[in-house]
Amino acid sequence: MILSNNQAIADILKSIDDGKTQLPDFQRGWVWEDQRIRALIASISNGYPIGAAMFLQTGGNNIHFKARLFEGVDKSKADVNPDTLVLDGQQRNTSIYRSLYSKKPVETTDAKKKPIIRFYYIHIPTALDTLTDRVDAIISVPETRIITENIGRDVKLDLSSPEKEYAQHYFPLNLIFDNVGMMQWQMQYAMFHNNDIEIFTRWTQFFNTIVAPMSKYQIPVIMIGNDVPKEAVCQVFENVNQGGVSLTVFELVTATFAADNFELRKDWDAIWNLISKTQLLNFKGQKPFEGTDFLTAITLLTNYLNKKNSADTRGISCKKKDVLRLDYTDYAANRDRLLEGLGEAVKFIHEQCIYTAIDLPYTSQLIPLFRAFCHRQKSLVLGTQPPKA
């Protein structure tokens, strides 16, 4: 089931802060720089669309991804079982959460990718100037809330106390979704200026045209139900992630096995380390197969064993969708058996006077060979054991 509707960003941010909305562990880290965060805030303050987000409901029988908190969320929420996982929208939602919701400074980068720590403000008079680009009203300041120039000798802007914020008319943007904090700031702001009618009028205009619409801002959300097959979810994620680095099948299976507290990457590294040390695979520095090939071979073996004693006459499949359906229990049960088949297959290849990967017509021949030789006499013992879940 897939539903689409608009959701208030305030509700999404609270869910992120409570740990009820998290990220699948295979999502890559948050990478947005300072200028991009400012541009995003400007778009929201203008009521411009920032694109749809895609969420996945948890709790189904088909999908078990290991989850992790959004960056900036208190680590005490790590034990919360999430209701939803964000498949698309991580960068935008993290940027909004950290700059407009969290009270912690934002750890980001400048245009040269240098790490910086920032708080975000909006200058009230500039924001109300219709002739000024809204992004020019939004600034970020260091953790000290003081901007200096001339190698730190001169202070350009000092917002290190609430009184200095009031005096210079800079509203802290992390109060947008904090009704109590915002009301307190507004009251103190008015009192600082002796309840000046001009200040009151300007604040009212600022609140009505910028603050209130931002606090009620909504984004389109596509919600994927927990009854959707795992391979469909993985395909959806690959489709929406085309702007980034594509995830391999191996990485996606790694994410599902992580839900069973099993580190597939570490296990594969140990397997390859042992294989490469044996003289049975002399491929002159070339890797004849990768982790995905190993998973494909295990899938082929698993499906063969499952159909061996069944009445199903269909062919044995090990396509991408089949690999994505591979369970950790099947991996653990057939891993060592496949390694034994690998040893027998390599012996057979050597008997055909094939010693390097370049001599094979195509290296994918190794996948069915591993499976085919799983039933011959055991001759290769690599001495590895899969870590227990």
Strand order of the largest sheet: 1-12-3-5-2-4
Number of strands: 12
Mean pLDDT: 85
Largest sheet: 6 strands, mixed
Principal-axes geometry comes out as elongated
Summed up, the helix count is 14
Structural class: alpha+beta
Question: Could you spell the SSE succession in H and E letters?
Answer: EHEHEEEHEEHEEEHEHHEHHHHHHH
Pick out the low-confidence regions. Answer: 377-384
- Estimated helix fraction: 40-55%
Measured distance between first and last alpha carbons: 31 Å
Rg for CA atoms: 28 Å
Share in β-strands: 15-25%
Question: Which tags fit this structure?
Answer:
389 residues; elongated; 14 helices; alpha+beta
Give an account of the 3D structure:
- There is one protein chain.
- This protein has helices spanning 9-18, 34-46, 90-101, 124-128, 162-168, 179-192, 197-215, 230-240, 249-258, 264-277, 291-308, 320-324, 328-351, 366-372, and strands at residues 2-8, 21-24, 53-57, 67-68, 84-88, 106-109, 115-123, 138-142, 146-149, 154-158, 170-172, 218-224.
- With 389 residues, it is an alpha+beta fold.
- It has a 6-stranded mixed β-sheet. Strands 6, 7, 8 and 11 form a 4-stranded antiparallel β-sheet that branches. A two-stranded antiparallel sheet has the order 9-10.
- It is elongated, with a radius of gyration of 28 Å.
